[in-house]
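On to our target:
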Amino acid sequence: MADNNLRIVVERNPSESKLSELNIKGWPKWGCSPGKYQLKFDAEETCYLLKGKVRAYPKGSSEFVEFGAGDLVIIPKGLSCTWDVSVAVDKHYKFESSSSSSQ
């Protein structure tokens, strides 16, 4: 079931105050070396790239979203995409728990 509303949102160079408000330094870290990765996001992920450069190709689309070091990225729940990593990635990440509903 393709959902065209699943868009990756990239905020370039977020402010230090926003990063500390989100407590990004307290989030777990993940990294990968250059290569192509098939990824499926079962929960919304927010990540902040310390290093790296990525082109994410959503499944079924020829368009890509590019992001890299210093970017805050929100990847929607349910998105399948291919990450084409040209520069090794080191990032902080956080998954939204499905139990938190906005009221």
Remarks:
- The beta strands are 9-12, 29-32, 35-40, 45-58, 65-68, 71-75, 80-95.
- The mean pLDDT is 91.
- The chain has one domain: 9-95.
- Residues 9-95 form a domain with the Jelly Rolls fold (CATH 2.60.120.10).
